Amino acid sequence: MSTPLPYGTWPSPLSARAVSAASPRIEGARYVGDEVWWGETVAEEAGRSAVRRRAASGVVSDVIAAPWSARSRVHEYGGGSWTTVEDDALVFVEKTDQRVWKVAHDGAPRPLTPVVGDTRFGGLTWQRGRLLAVREVHGASAVPRRDIVEIPLDGGAAKDAALLSSLVDDSDFLAHPGLSPDGSHLAWIAWNHPAMPWDRTELRVGRLEDGVVAEWTTVAGGETAPLQPQWTSDDDLLYADDPTGRWNLWKLRLTADLERHPVAPADADTGGPVWVLGQRWFTVLDDGRVLAIRTHGADELVLIDGESERGIPCEGVAGLSIEDVRGSRVLVSGAGADGTALWDIDVDEPASTRAVVGGASPWGAEWMPRARAVTFDGPRGPVHAFDYPPTNPDVTASPDEKPPYLVLVHGGPTAHVGGAASGKIAFFTSRGIGVLDVNYGGSSGYGRAYRERLLGQWGVVDVDDVIAAATGLAAAGIADADRLAIAGGSAGGWTVLCALTLADTFAAGISRYGVADLRRLAEDTHDFEARYLDSMVGPLPEAEALYAARSPLSRLDRLRTPLLIEQGLEDRVVPPSQSEAVRDALKENGVPHAYLVFEGEGHGFRRAETVVRQLEAEIAFLGVVLGFDPDGVEPLDLD
Known about the structure:
There is one protein chain. The protein is built from 10 helices and 38 strands. With 639 residues, it is an alpha+beta fold. Strands 30-31-34-33-35-36-37-38 form an 8-stranded mixed beta sheet, sandwiched between helices. A 4-stranded antiparallel beta sheet has the order 2-3-4-5, with no helix packed on it. A 4-stranded antiparallel beta sheet has the order 6-7-8-9, with no helix packed on it. The protein is globular, with a radius of gyration of 24 Å.
């Protein structure tokens, strides 16, 4: 029989340390012989990106031991930091030096690329007996030079950089290289400043001579955003594009008139923002069938066979990526109702699906809240979100009390959240605090029109939408209107600061490395996002006044809401100076606050000790401000 207790005070088995250990980030996966290999961020090892293997016996071991860490910094966000090549050898980008290394048969890593200034590699892919990568070279120019290169496996290029073969450049950014089956052509995605890869890209195809592109042509895109070209024959390409407003699959025959036609069109997206290299939204099976991810808020898997299609059951509903294929089996990573996982799925026998890693809550499913998709009326149309109610099998609350709610604002801002609970969400809901995860206008996952609501309106649409969602939840009698809090990181932190300086909807705020000064962001941010603000606010210097007016830093005198600020000291995207300016204003305004800094952390927290401190501080902060005593958590002193 459950015990009645006030919201926020419920005892929970989900400690911050346990949540940190139970929330791995999956970074790629491969079938290797009778084993499955995958990349995994290990919080307990200072956020190291390990590559691990599961043998047929079920035994799990590391392919590369600590302190080796497979993490790319191309575009700063990386992706595609490892793959496997001939003889089941591992090649990976080492975090510390950004060189590519090779490990064969449990041997010691040896370098494949040289030490040449600030040179980075990412998007590693093994195709037709060739190791391809995106190379990024930082030098005197403000825009790094990027190209697609072939890396020889014999290690010769580690001593002679001239042995790295540059296949093609000709654009500010490149991604998704694909060799034709006969090796005569290369397809890839290219884009240039000021566009972002969800705005406008080009699908290019080049003729190869002596292994490099001799000439190329654009075969799709320009005004749309094609993604992930995959050859189905020497003359046919399958790719995703959004001329209809949704990323759907298209087939292109490389004839003189470029014959193309849609493949299984749907009012959902097969594709998404290219924040990292290496993500795949579809794959072609050996027999020609296509397995695709479709997203409309949540993700689903669909098997396309000619004119027919059928859903493939999968526990994952958010952040799905198709990592590898072997016959009718596929490796799919993502998040489901019980957290992140990597699944081995046979599309012909989906009942045999197994989780290679993750996929089960350490505390039992009864502790994980079930997402409820909700939609609210916003000033510019519907606002989508997922509601996670307080969930604890041992406790109930008084029917006269409504729960406090934490409204989450995702980063990006061009990103989205699916309806997948995580240990971090359950950390709050198991203690009697509801969580509302909002996909404000500008989020992906609902088509181009929804995504483009934010054009020129960052700091306006996102703020209006999170307020509409929060007040809508309270008006429906689900949340306590006087105990609404808001939290977000990076671009989400920006929305937190904007909301707190523009409205009084929220009783508390949590800003994780949030943007406070748009002008400083434009000056300091890295090249990948250097022109992002052109579309979301306006180009400089023409929009200088608007940058100042939108920035929370310009109206910090209006910041009167208690705030917890969390900041990594090595953040190169949003430097600590922005958080320090907010902290100083809170002091001057006499507003209760706490400022936590974390050594060794950049833009996003990876270390176990950081995540533990973050979660404990956040629940303690909410208790102080919203008026409850969290069970088993040390109090947090506010300045």
